[in-house]
Design goal:
single chain, alpha+beta, 3 domains, 3-stranded antiparallel beta sheet, 12 strands, 17% strand
C-alpha cells in the first residue's frame, strides 16, 4: 500500500481528471499493488466495472449512475485503445439523443474481456473521432448505422422516424454510411436495406408516407413535400411536410415518435407562427389520426381546400 504523499496526490489528480475511473496500470503507477487494489474492492471502498476501477464505494450503482464520460473511460480501459465507441454514447456526444439506441463497441478482434450490457461489433479498424480525453468515438451517422444493425427492424423504424423528424440526416448521407454494410452475409443487412428504403421514400417518416398516400387519393393536389419557407433575407425559417403551393395550405405531420420536449414544443410553435404570418393555412395531424381516423383527416383537408378556393 502506498504511503508517500506524492502517490496519494497523483491518484487524487488522476481521479479528478478521469471522473474517478482509472485502470489497474494507473493504480500501479501510483504505487498500488494488485493485492491492495483487490483488498479495497473486496472491502467495498472501490468497485470494478469491467476492466476499470471506479474510485467510489460499493453502494454506488455504477451501471445506472455512471456519466457518459465515465462509461467512455470504462469501455476504453476494458476493451483497449483500439476500441471505437459507438451506439448511444457516440450519438449523445454528437447531440443526437435517441431513446432506445444500444451501447456498442466496434473492434477489429474478439475482446479479451467483456461487459454483459455491451454489444461488440467486429470490424477492421477505421476512422474515429478522438475526444480530448483520448477516447475514440464513431461519427454519429456511423453510430446510427451500427445501432440499426443490432436493433432489428421494428425498433429501428422507431429510431429512424425520430431521426428523420429531427432533420438529423438526409437520404444521400445515410445511404453512403449504410452502403458498406448492405452486402450478403453482413449482420443486420436486411434491416438496413429496409431503413434505407424508408429514408429514401421521399418523406421523413412512416407517418408522412401514410399522409402522402391519403393526399394522393384525395385528388386535391398537387402536394409538394418537404418545402422550405424563407424569410425576407432568404434564410430558411421553416419546412413544410406537405404544401399546396397554389392554395398556400401547409400540412404538418407528427409521427409515432414525435418529439414532445420543451425545446421542441417551442420550435414547433415558432414555425407555425412563421407560416401563419406568411399567409399559410396550417393543418396538423398525429400518427393516431392518420392511421386510425383517416376519414377525418381527409375531411379536414377537403374543408381547407374548399375554404381556400371559395
Amino acid at each position: 500500500m502506498p504511503h508517500a504523499h506524492s502517490d496519494r496526490q497523483r491518484l487524487h489528480d488522476l481521479s479528478m481528471s478521469q471522473d474517478g475511473v482509472v485502470s489497474p496500470s494507473d493504480l500501479a503507477a501510483c504505487g498500488f499493488s494488485r493485492r491492495s487494489v483487490a483488498r479495497r474492492v473486496a472491502e467495498g471502498t472501490w468497485q470494478r466495472v469491467g476492466g476499470a476501477i471506479l474510485l467510489a464505494p460499493a453502494p454506488f450503482d455504477a451501471e445506472r449512475h455512471l456519466t457518459d464520460r465515465q462509461w467512455a473511460a470504462v469501455l476504453t480501459i476494458t476493451y483497449g485503445p483500439r476500441a471505437r465507441i459507438s451506439g448511444d454514447l457516440a450519438l449523445r456526444r454528437a447531440g443526437w439523443h435517441l431513446a432506445g439506441t444500444p451501447r456498442l463497441i466496434v473492434m477489429p478482434h474478439k475482446p479479451p474481456a467483456a461487459l454483459p450490457q455491451i454489444r461488440v461489433l467486429r470490424r477492421p479498424d477505421g476512422a474515429a473521432i478522438r475526444s480530448p480525453e483520448g477516447f475514440r468515438f464513431m461519427a454519429p451517422l456511423d453510430a446510427l448505422v451500427d445501432s440499426l444493425i443490432v436493433l432489428g427492424e421494428r425498433r429501428s423504424a422507431d429510431v429512424i422516424d425520430l431521426v428523420l423528424q429531427r432533420r438529423l440526416i438526409d437520404a444521400e448521407s445515410f445511404a453512403r454510411a449504410a452502403q458498406p454494410h448492405l452486402g450478403s452475409g453482413h449482420n443486420g443487412a436486411t434491416c438496413l436495406r429496409a431503413m434505407l428504403e424508408r429514408v429514401t421514400s421521399g418523406s421523413r417518416s412512416e407517418a408522412e408516407q401514410r399522409m402522402g398516400a391519403l393526399l394522393d387519393r384525395s385528388g386535391t393536389g398537387p402536394w409538394a413535400r418537404n418545402v422550405p419557407v424563407r424569410d425576407i433575407t432568404n434564410r430558411v425559417v421553416a419546412e413544410i411536410d406537405f404544401a399546396h403551393l397554389g392554395l398556400r395550405i401547409a400540412i404538418e405531420v407528427d409521427g409515432r415518435a414525435h418529439h414532445t420536449g420543451r425545446m421542441a414544443f417551442e420550435r414547433d410553435r415558432e414555425r407555425q407562427n412563421v407560416l401563419m404570418l406568411q399567409g399559410w393555412l396550417v393543418l396538423r395531424f398525429t400518427w393516431e389520426q392518420i392511421t386510425q381516423r383517416p376519414g377525418e383527416v381527409l375531411a379536414a383537408v377537403l374543408a381547407a381546400v374548399a375554404q381556400r378556393v371559395a
